[in-house]
Design brief:
By secondary structure, this protein is α+β, with helices and mostly antiparallel strands. The protein is built from 13 helices and 11 strands. The strands form 3 sheets. A 5-stranded antiparallel β-sheet has the order 6-5-4-3-7, with helices on one face. It is elongated.
Length: 335
């Protein structure tokens, strides 16, 4: 979002006019403070942008400076043409024409990379929505987004993972899209950083009270560190098994719940392979292994064998009264 905004600022400034902060803010639909930060970013990047004071003042480039983004490498220029996710633009209420944006960018790139940049747009499509297009609660997006941009405190009722409701007063610092889910990164009343899933925010109010953004806070760096800590703290339940060769591909395909660690060189025979599997919890391991029936045999932990046997017996008891009487039996199938 910021990168696109900086490019738009450069395109406008390259016309050689002096543009006021308020004009930029209205055009890009951001605050005056955001424009000042963007101009500072451009200056740090080596773009000769400066301000003129007075009634007719504003921002402009040094006379005759028109670099057509040549300060970027060819790959960096082409990367700007990666198509924007339509879901992201919709979620953020950015009603812009991606085709128009592409044309504006094409006018600003050197001729020798123009065709490659256009090809990328035509050959790559980014879809961050779910397969079934499940609708999430996005009512809070617009006011939260406004609070983030204007440094306004927010009070909200939040449904936690255990479905309990809790009230928070937060300082929202940024928005992150992970997969198809939005998160608001904030500082809570205990002065701790927290990640809140947007779809779990039930009721909220943007307060008039402002907050001071922490010095040195960089959203992308925080999120990467937060993600690393989350992964490191995930529970791990390791199981040593022997599996039929017929299901190895199926096991790897279902990698959402199980991670393949290694394949042992010691095999009991050609039909069975020893594997180490890792699950989030024991319950996930039991449910997964039961789903493969007699094609997975647990070696350790040993106590898991008795749990699986008990669960299998419970399934047998559940259907014991229907064996021989159901439509499958009547059709000639044997159990």
């Amino acid at each position: 979002m910021k990168a696109e905004r900086l490019i738009r600022i450069l395109i406008i400034l390259q016309h050689g006019e002096t543009i006021s902060t308020r004009t930029f803010a209205n055009e890009l639909e951001v605050s005056d403070r955001t424009i000042h930060r963007d101009m500072e970013s451009l200056s740090v990047a080596g773009i000769p942008v400066f301000s003129e004071r007075g009634k007719a003042g504003g921002w402009r480039l040094i006379d005759e400076w028109k670099n057509k983004l040549s300060w970027l490498t060819e790959k960096e220029i082409i990367s700007l043409f990666l198509p924007a996710s339509e879901k992201v633009l919709s979620d953020l209420n950015l009603n812009i024409s991606t085709d128009e944006m592409k044309q504006k960018l094409l006018l600003s790139v050197p001729n020798h990379v123009r065709q490659n940049a256009a090809n990328l747009w035509e050959r790559i499509y980014i879809d961050t929505d779910t397969w079934r297009g499940l609708q999430q609660n996005m009512r809070s997006m617009e006011p939260i987004q406004q609070a983030v941009m204007e440094n306004k405190k927010v009070t909200m009722e939040y449904k936690q993972a255990n479905n309990e409701m809790k009230t928070y007063i937060i300082n929202p610092l940024g928005l992150v899209l992970k997969g198809s889910a939005w998160y608001v990164i904030a500082i809570n009343s205990r002065n701790s950083y927290r990640n809140f899933r947007l779809s779990r925010i039930i009721n909220f109010t943007v307060l008039e009270e402002s907050f001071t953004r922490p010095d040195g806070f960089i959203l992308s760096q925080y999120w990467q560190e937060s993600k690393r800590e989350f992964i490191q703290n995930l529970p791990a339940y390791q199981v040593e098994v022997e599996v039929s060769r017929q299901i190895i591909k199926r096991i790897m395909f279902t990698g959402r719940f199980v991670r393949h660690l290694h394949e042992s060189t010691k095999e009991s025979n050609n039909e069975w392979v020893q594997l180490s599997l890792e699950f989030p919890t024991e319950e996930e391991a039991v449910n997964f292994i039961l789903g493969f029936g007699n094609q997975i045999r647990v070696n350790s932990p040993v106590h898991l064998q008795s749990i699986l046997a008990k669960k299998a017996n419970e399934v047998l008891e559940l259907y014991s009264g229907t064996v021989g009487t159901g439509p499958l039996s009547q059709a000639g199938y044997k159990f």
